[in-house]
Amino acid sequence: MRLSRYFLPILKETPKEAEIVSHRLMLRAGMMRQQAAGIYSWLPLGLKVLRKIEGIVREEQNRAGALEMLMPTVQPADLWIESGRYDDYGKEMLRISDRHDRSMLYGPTNEEMITEIFRSYVRSFRDLPLNLYHIQWKFRDEVRPRFGVMRGREFFMKDAYSFDLDKESARRAYHRMFVAYLRTFARLGMQAIPMKADSGPIGGDMSHEFIVLASTGESGVFCHKDLLDMPVPGEDVDFDSDLSPIVDAWTSLYAATDEKHDEAAFAAVPEDRRIAARGIEVGHIFYFGTKYSDPMNAKVTTADGQNVPVHMGSYGIGVSRLVGAIIEASHDDNGIIWPASVAPFDAAVVNLKQGDAATDAMCERLYGEMRAAGFDALYDDTDQRAGAKFATMDLIGVPWQVVVGPKGLASGEVELKNRATGERASLTPEAAMNRLVAEARGAS
Amino acid sequence: MRLSRYFLPILKETPKEAEIVSHRLMLRAGMMRQQAAGIYSWLPLGLKVLRKIEGIVREEQNRAGALEMLMPTVQPADLWIESGRYDDYGKEMLRISDRHDRSMLYGPTNEEMITEIFRSYVRSFRDLPLNLYHIQWKFRDEVRPRFGVMRGREFFMKDAYSFDLDKESARRAYHRMFVAYLRTFARLGMQAIPMKADSGPIGGDMSHEFIVLASTGESGVFCHKDLLDMPVPGEDVDFDSDLSPIVDAWTSLYAATDEKHDEAAFAAVPEDRRIAARGIEVGHIFYFGTKYSDPMNAKVTTADGQNVPVHMGSYGIGVSRLVGAIIEASHDDNGIIWPASVAPFDAAVVNLKQGDAATDAMCERLYGEMRAAGFDALYDDTDQRAGAKFATMDLIGVPWQVVVGPKGLASGEVELKNRATGERASLTPEAAMNRLVAEARGAS
């Protein structure tokens, strides 16, 4: 993309309303614009990141055998009356009356609707297990939306719902999502630790929050240091196999948010292995048994002819929230440091003297070579001064920047800069491209 | 995808509420489920088609230089009060009060919001031309939603908005979208004819509807037969060049919906070149000048220092509606006939005797080869009877079906079936795969 043709409205001043760094950086970097409290437009740069995150979430859901579908944003209230949650949900639910005065709502979550879909089509244990997910906009009418996309009202979420014949099968479904989540967050360049969460009236051990460590995180977290070095299952993990050894390894070590923190248990962790840090919740997985299938009469026939309510779980990832969470976990004073997998552009060419024939020609050549090599490349071909160009590249966090100017070219060199380390190297254009391609191969 | 693990709830009976063929077939093929009047869930098969259409629409918008962003579904009412449309819009607008009693609405379209975004960031003619688009869910509270996704309430739409310094530049922006639309619909396997549409109070010649010919179409259309053979610009069309020769060629021949039909002008078309048919509107492009920039004060500075309201156009494609439109244009008594570019699966393997070792092994082999060749492949590995399997494949419209059974295998052959032509050929497995690969290369 040529920057002269792009829409990247960088803000020079730090917006006053933004209380946390991800919110500030997303506004300054021209990633988004607030349209109402907690409601944002995603400008081109922000949308690119959102879509890359969404893509990774989708791939890992599919790999784990979940099937993608898409439920609408507007739901009839009837379903929620049936499950008993319509009155309970309170003011966070955005209630709507349509032109015929039918009670509708903007879905804050989809347990009711997916249960309705399930009971409409599935009758037999032979059709299980089943895991259906969608990635869709949701609305929760927070009383005080804040922190940008970290606590917005309209937000983008992946929610999966598993259906199984009994609790043992449901546990296997739960394990599949557990492993899929480990892989998802690792691919997003983050250390996410599963931590035991409140499992409500059902009790048991099948509710985990996935927490990303970030110094600016919303909650205090306590965990065993070995969790940071725990290997994440590879691409070749077999989701049809017994995944409990993986889950057991991750859950055998102490990890809790301050809400569930147990000082005594933490004290049992060797002192040099204790970590007290801050974290952000980016995912939540939850087995809830027959909580919805019972009142909504979602039953299947067993092998011996009985008719039993199906066992369900739900599995959420806050996709739009992740954009903020990644920035909270990875930034410096100059701006955002994107993990390679979600960077809006892989690499950029910075032209230090637009209009200088040799510089322009070299920039065009490198920009062409980057694209030919499969990079999503940005070319700053504007007539801004060098300092502003450097600042923009660091602010928006382009991982690799090739800076081209007449002085360097006079000695046959361009400068290759790594955003994360700040390392700069003067290289021939050929060497710079070779390095870029080698680094990209290494990262993928 | 193995059908035994997929969620494809085929309906045996034709749903009574469905008045038109696309609605009937989408319900029968398990593509979608109605959740409320005019509000649908997209089941896995339907979502695949929707995403493929969305992908083609996106590629062609990007090729034409439009920039993707994403506006929220919920909008503040203020913007619409400012433009003067809040009261005009009537009951089709889904109005919402949030918990603080602020007036919001579910966006039926986005002229106001995009104008607000534009005026917040863009000040100078140097930043023009600009075309921003998004593909997002919209809501129009139709008094009587019907015809499935053809006239739903919650629908998926691509809407682009162009910003230019003056009418001449706006015309160039209009031409770029005109050409992008020709390419988009052609890639979707449809003959879409641009037809002059009502341009409202602004007048002029810059408003066209794109109409797909389909015998079950909603409106009568009249056009010159040569339009059906008019070449669509190729991938190499230069969107920076003067596109008016292309636009002039397409608009020089008679084409009108019954609303704008002019009997006298049609009579001037040579008799053997006259077509009277039926059609479905799938896109609409529209130049509206300063209709929103004037009241909303969206101005730019010209080269000579004047401050002028920006000239705008909007360009819509009904993405969810297209799923229905394609089916209306392409089906037979057995089901849907997808154009290759949007088929939910490229090819399928049908196992006629699940459990027979040789048949299972050959099916696995072919299914593996299809995937290795890059096909999005479906494998019917269920234990349904052959007739039901054939019916399902034709109903959901898999373009190429490889049928494998013990009888054929005894003589070393499988059957390759083409869904569109009904042609069947007995071939060795190798020849069937070669044919498939060759056909796929030809189609792309």
Automatic annotation (TrEMBL), chains A, B:
<comment type="function">
    <text>Catalyzes the attachment of proline to tRNA(Pro) in a two-step reaction: proline is first activated by ATP to form Pro-AMP and then transferred to the acceptor end of tRNA(Pro).</text>
</comment>
<dbReference type="InterPro" id="IPR045864">
    <property type="entry name" value="aa-tRNA-synth_II/BPL/LPL"/>
</dbReference>
<keyword id="KW-0436">Ligase</keyword>
<dbReference type="InterPro" id="IPR002314">
    <property type="entry name" value="aa-tRNA-synt_IIb"/>
</dbReference>
<dbReference type="InterPro" id="IPR044140">
    <property type="entry name" value="ProRS_anticodon_short"/>
</dbReference>
<dbReference type="GO" id="GO:0005829">
    <property type="term" value="C:cytosol"/>
</dbReference>
<dbReference type="InterPro" id="IPR004500">
    <property type="entry name" value="Pro-tRNA-synth_IIa_bac-type"/>
</dbReference>
<dbReference type="GO" id="GO:0004827">
    <property type="term" value="F:proline-tRNA ligase activity"/>
</dbReference>
<dbReference type="GO" id="GO:0006433">
    <property type="term" value="P:prolyl-tRNA aminoacylation"/>
</dbReference>
<protein>
    <recommendedName>
        <fullName>Proline--tRNA ligase</fullName>
        <ecNumber>6.1.1.15</ecNumber>
    </recommendedName>
</protein>
<dbReference type="InterPro" id="IPR006195">
    <property type="entry name" value="aa-tRNA-synth_II"/>
</dbReference>
<dbReference type="GO" id="GO:0005524">
    <property type="term" value="F:ATP binding"/>
</dbReference>
<comment type="similarity">
    <text>Belongs to the class-II aminoacyl-tRNA synthetase family. ProS type 2 subfamily.</text>
</comment>
<keyword id="KW-0648">Protein biosynthesis</keyword>
<keyword id="KW-0067">ATP-binding</keyword>
<dbReference type="InterPro" id="IPR050062">
    <property type="entry name" value="Pro-tRNA_synthetase"/>
</dbReference>
<keyword id="KW-0547">Nucleotide-binding</keyword>
<keyword id="KW-0963">Cytoplasm</keyword>
<comment type="subunit">
    <text>Homodimer.</text>
</comment>
<feature type="domain" description="Aminoacyl-transfer RNA synthetases class-II family profile">
    <location>
        <begin position="38"/>
        <end position="339"/>
    </location>
</feature>
<keyword id="KW-0030">Aminoacyl-tRNA synthetase</keyword>
<dbReference type="InterPro" id="IPR004154">
    <property type="entry name" value="Anticodon-bd"/>
</dbReference>
<dbReference type="InterPro" id="IPR036621">
    <property type="entry name" value="Anticodon-bd_dom_sf"/>
</dbReference>
<dbReference type="InterPro" id="IPR002316">
    <property type="entry name" value="Pro-tRNA-ligase_IIa"/>
</dbReference>
<dbReference type="InterPro" id="IPR023716">
    <property type="entry name" value="Prolyl-tRNA_ligase_IIa_type2"/>
</dbReference>
<dbReference type="Pfam" id="PF03129">
    <property type="entry name" value="HGTP_anticodon"/>
</dbReference>
<dbReference type="InterPro" id="IPR033730">
    <property type="entry name" value="ProRS_core_prok"/>
</dbReference>
<dbReference type="Pfam" id="PF00587">
    <property type="entry name" value="tRNA-synt_2b"/>
</dbReference>
